[in-house]
Amino acid sequence: MNLLVTGGCGFIGSNFIRQRLLEKTSPLARLVNLDALTYAGNPANLADLASDPRYVFVHGDIGDATLVPRLLAEHQIDAIVNFAAESHVDRSIDSPEPFIQTNVVGTLRLLNGTRLYWSKLPEPKKSAFRFLHVSTDEVYGTLSATDPAFTEETPFAPNSPYAASKAASDHLVRSYQHTFKLPTLTTNCSNNYGPYHFPEKLIPLVILNALEGRPLPVYGDGQQIRDWLFVEDHAAAIWLVLQRGRIGETYNIGGLNEKPNIEIVQTICALLDQKSPRPDGRPYAAQITYVADRPGHDRRYAIDCTKLQRELGWVPREDFNTGIAKTVDWYLRHRDWAADITSKKYARERLGVAK
Fold first, then answer.
1. What is the pTM of this model?
2. Domain layout of the chain by residue ranges
3. CATH superfamily, with its number, for domain 2-191+231-255+302-317
4. CB 94 within 8 A of CB 49
5. What φ, ψ does residue 11 adopt, rounded to 5°?
6. Model confidence over 162-182: pLDDT tens digits?
């Protein structure tokens, strides 16, 4: 397989690429990583794999209507996994337009370039081709404490500019399958966490701020509930859907770990108390600081991934206890990776509260 991954230098994309290149039985002949290297794209995430002869990095934009068709033809691509997106809710509230440009216009142009290439493929390559679009549970809106979890049939009700832009891209993908018969697949995931997570998001932010003696900001009462999915489990699910998913279908991917944000913060503090105690002996939880809630903050997300489990046999390998311990250990071992980002990628005052 010749695979094109867009946004592969980001958090989830880089974990997916690592998993594919390190899998000993992987059928990959070539993996092309197309990434615009905006603020959250970090080539260091894949630096140790850059010499793999199957790996090709291309610095470029999914919205480049000339580049995309050329790459597809040059590398004879058999499948696309589209991770490329602006993804931080707070940033979308501050400035919605980049989210529309990347997530909507960019996805549209990627679909156009893909359709042009795919339409000219000979059989059986045309029938075997796949376009997998990676999306989020935020397109479904918010839930009360007693509502059933989101299913693939839940109506879209996005509540932030980010979620709205992803909902639009999901609709575009669906429309290209329905109208042009482009063989598409869509996945909608819950909150990811794990290695290489960009430091402005909740879990890495709490780990790094704690170690630096900085406040651990928690929005509102901290009772916003999310379903937490270990990124390596997510990557494995995407690969499974790409190989065996039914064309035109959507698959929800969840971690089966619903927890309020304040519990996440407290769990991290307790792990750090054990693994890297404060010099003064005080608990890290003393650094927790409650701040004003984010505008339009969704109260609860929850994913029902029964369809993925029933049809494709997927189950997460990590529960939250094992996954968060692995994550804390990774950040303790990679302080230099995080320090490089926080010093070079964006101003320290941008370190706020994550979704």
1. 0.94
2. 2-191+231-255+302-317
3. NAD(P)-binding Rossmann-like Domain (3.40.50.720)
4. no
5. -60, -60
6. 999 999 999 999 999 999 999
